[in-house]
Structure formats: structure tokens, C-alpha cells
Amino acid sequence: MRHPVPSDSQRRSAERGFTLIELLGTVLILATVAFAVAHHLHQRRLTRRCAEQLWHIYTALEMYEIDRGTLPRLAFFPNDPKQDADSLVTVIQPYAAAEGLTVCPAAPASQRALGLTYVWNVENNGHKLHPPGVPKWMLVEIQALSESVPAPHEGRYHILYTDGQVELSKNPPPDLRRL
User: Fold this and answer.
1) Which residues in the chain show pLDDT less than 50?
2) Cα 171 → chain centroid
3) Which helix (H) or strand (E) holds 142?
4) Which of 27, 94, 129, 165 has the greatest number of beta carbons closer than 10 A?
């Protein structure tokens, strides 16, 4: 049985362009790559904002220390972060230039609603910011308390130290879970 031979114009049009399926596949791949890049850039912005906010908290704690002579006596994590006298939120309020510094922008909404997404190292209570020796951690993101909760910055946590350094680490401070 003979098969019909395609005409020259049919052969040229088939060779000239993409089929609709090929075109849709290409668009889908490009959209996926664009979404992944946009998500990564958004995460980087959140990570940078979180580090900047921790630095501003450090500056507020410096001003507190200048006024009072030592670091405040704060709770590890207060019962009511927005109201308790031993909350980082209420203590730095007179010294902070912006609201919301105590909330990591990458934290889940349920945690952001608390008004505080960091835990305080109570070993710093009543001490100086620049103790002799190795700097101690002051604040770390609350997600570091549980291994089952993912770290907010692409698998890493921010840690604020008594020398003002903000570190992005895959591991929480080693003594965190004993506090």
C-alpha cells in the first residue's frame, strides 16, 4: 500500500516551527525557572532584613546598657511578648527606631503574630555587652528550639552575639537546649 507523500510546502512548515506541545513545554520550563529564581531572591531579601533587624536590636541594647549599666533581665521567651516587663519587645521599645524589629520577616505568620520570634540567652541577664573572652550568643530564632521545625532562612538560623555580630548558621548555639 502506498502512503501519500507530503508536499514540499507541508514538509517546510513542519521543519519551520515548533508544535504547540513543544512551545507549551518550553514556556512551562521557563516559568518554572523564573519562579525558582524569584523565590530564591525573595528568601535572600527576608534573610538580609532579618539580619538588619537583629543589628538594630543590638543597637537598642547598647543604648539600654548605656542608660542602665548592664543588659536587661529578660525571659528566655516571655508569656506575653507584647506586654510582659521581661520581654525584649517592651524593653527595647524606647530605644528602637522601628516597630516590628523583634519579628523575623521569614517566620511563619503564627509566630509573627506573637510579636517576638527570637529567644534570649538568660545567661546575659545583668551582664555587659562586651564581656571579656569569646562573645556569647544573645538571640537566636525560635525555630532553633526544635529539630522538627525547619530553619527560616533556607535551612539556617540567625544568631546575634554580644559583640554585635550576626551569624547565619546551620546549627543553633550548642547550649541553647539546656537553658
Assistant:
1) none
2) 14
3) none
4) 129
Q: CA nearest 171: which of 138, 147, 139, 136?
A: 147
The size of the chain, in residues, is 179
Instruction: Give the model confidence (pLDDT) of 160-173 as tens digits.
Output: 999 999 999 999 99
Rg (CA), the chain: 26
Nearest to 54 by CA among 142, 141, 149: 141
Closest of 71, 175, 53 to residue 118, by C-alpha = 53
C-alpha cell of 35? 519562579
Compute the distance between CA of residue 32 and CA of residue 29 in angstroms, rounded to an integer: 5
Side-chain half-sphere exposure of 23, counting CA atoms within 13 A: 4
Residue entry with cell 542608660: 67
Asked whether the beta carbons of 52 and 101 are under 8 A apart, the reply is no
pTM for this entry: 0.81
User: What type of residue is 51?
Assistant: A
Calculated CA dihedral for residues 132, 73, 83, 47, nearest 10 degrees: 20
CA-to-CA distance for 176 and 151, rounded, in angstroms?
Answer: 15
